[in-house]
Every structure is written in structure tokens, then in C-alpha cells.
UniProtKB/TrEMBL annotation:
InterPro entries registered for this protein in UniProt: DUF3000
Residue stretches of biased makeup (Basic and acidic residues): 16-31
Name of the protein: DUF3000 domain-containing protein
Segments of this protein annotated with the region Disordered: 1-43
Organism for this UniProt entry: Streptomyces tendae
Length: 235
């Protein structure tokens, strides 16, 4: 799986980067294992939220697996990486991190936070569309709303990048990429546990839409989907 790599901003209270922050230092040494702190030392609400992520059933074109979580954004974290797969090619990939601060976080307005990075390659014509960032952000909020999810404090960025090759690399075609970095606070249900399985499903809907896959079920015909990129990335 071609996992999304890079810095993950939670958009409201920290950045997982090499320099670190006071918040990161305060949480250094927190319990983190494979995928995150979901073991016996984790609070019951966090353990239940993680178990729901592990048990979620997703559309077959999306491969999901646990990965090491950021260690300095919150006392407890669990991370997944995913790729939208077509044969031996990855059409899009991403990373989703569940953060938990049992005492609550002022910027989150809650005890849980979901942080994501999603990326895919684009047709150059699509990348040049001035409305693309707004459309991509609407894909995220629309995916959450389509599943009836309530959330708060959303924040994020949509970034377009283009690469042009010269000299010994001039034979390569120009490439464009879109990145969506976002975070939001999921509404907590019984026992203070958010519906993480539904949030994961909506995130996979976003991945599929960025990859250019058709909706898993009939939807609004007005929703714009991203055309599949010309040259899928080899796995």
C-alpha cells in the first residue's frame, strides 16, 4: 500500500512535525503501540472508539490497515492508512488519525479529534480549475453530511502542486497532485464515544471520490466527482 506520508496538522491544537511544540513535549512518552494507544491502559471511551474502527466494513476497492500513530498530538492516538486500489495501481491514498484527550481540549471543544491527509494525482486541466479547492473541501463536508454525522470545529487546507521535469527527466510528463488536510471534532454519543465507524466510512467515501470512483450507492446527481487520473501510481 502506498501510504500517505507527511505532516498531519490537527488544525486545532498541534502539528506533528520534527520541531515539536509545548503540547508535544507535554505528551511525549504517552502510550503508543502499533496503530496507537488502544491497549489496556487506554480509557474505555477511546478503546471502544478504536474497536469500532477495527470492526468497520468498507467498500472492497479501499485497502485499510493500521499504522503507527503520531506520538505527540494527544495522550492517546490511533492511526489508519488507506489506498484506493484498481488492480495493481493506487488511485489515491490517505491517513486518518483518531486523537483522544480525556480531559478535553479547548481548541477541539471535545475530547476526540479526527485528523486526515488525503491525496491523489490530477489531470492538469482539473488542477488548473480555480474552484477546485472549494470543491474538494465540499467533498469532505458532504461525505460527513451524507451519513448524517454531526461534527464541530472543522478546519483544514486544500493544496494543489504541479511538477515539471527537465534535463534527464524531461521525458516524464508533467504531474499535478491534490492534497486535503483536515480535522474535525466528532460528536460524542453514549459513554462519550463518537461513531468512529461512520466517520471512517465517510472518510473512505471522500477517498473514493478523490480517486474518481463512482458512488457506492445512488446519490445526488449534482455531486461533482474527480475524473480518474491519467497515470495511476504503481504499487
Amino acid at each position: 500500500m502506498a501510504a500517505a506520508q507527511g505532516r498531519l496538522s490537527d488544525g486545532a491544537g498541534g502539528m506533528d512535525d520534527a520541531k515539536g511544540t509545548e503540547e508535544e513535549a507535554r505528551h511525549k512518552g504517552s502510550d503508543h503501540g502499533s496503530g496507537g494507544s488502544g491497549g489496556s491502559t487506554a480509557p474505555p471511551a477511546f478503546a471502544a472508539a478504536v474497536e469500532a474502527l477495527r470492526a468497520a466494513r468498507l467498500r472492497p476497492q479501499i485497502e485499510v490497515e493500521a499504522t503507527r500513530a503520531p506520538q505527540r498530538l494527544a495522550p492517546h492516538a490511533y492511526a489508519l492508512e488507506a489506498a484506493v486500489v484498481d488492480g495493481d495501481e493506487d488511485l489515491a491514498d490517505g491517513r486518518l488519525v483518531l486523537l483522544h484527550e480525556p480531559a478535553g481540549h479547548d481548541a477541539w471543544h471535545g475530547t476526540f479529534r479526527l485528523v486526515t491527509l488525503v491525496r491523489a494525482e490530477l489531470e492538469p486541466e482539473m488542477a488548473a480549475d480555480p474552484l477546485l479547492p472549494d470543491v474538494c473541501w465540499s467533498w469532505l463536508t458532504g461525505a460527513l453530511q451524507a451519513r448524517g454525522l454531526t461534527y464541530g470545529e472543522p478546519s483544514g487546507t486544500v493544496t494543489r502542486a504541479s511538477s515539471h521535469y527537465f534535463g534527464g527527466l524531461s521525458a516524464r510528463p508533467s504531474a499535478s497532485q491534490i492534497e486535503i488536510r483536515a480535522s474535525w471534532t466528532p460528536r460524542e454519543g453514549l459513554g462519550g464515544v463518537p461513531d468512529t465507524a461512520a466517520h471512517l466510512a465517510s472518510w473512505c467515501d471522500l477517498l473514493a471520490q478523490v480517486a474518481g470512483l463512482p458512488p457506492a450507492a445512488p446519490g445526488d446527481a449534482s455531486v461533482v466527482t474527480l475524473p480518474q487520473r491519467r497515470g495511476p501510481q504503481s504499487r
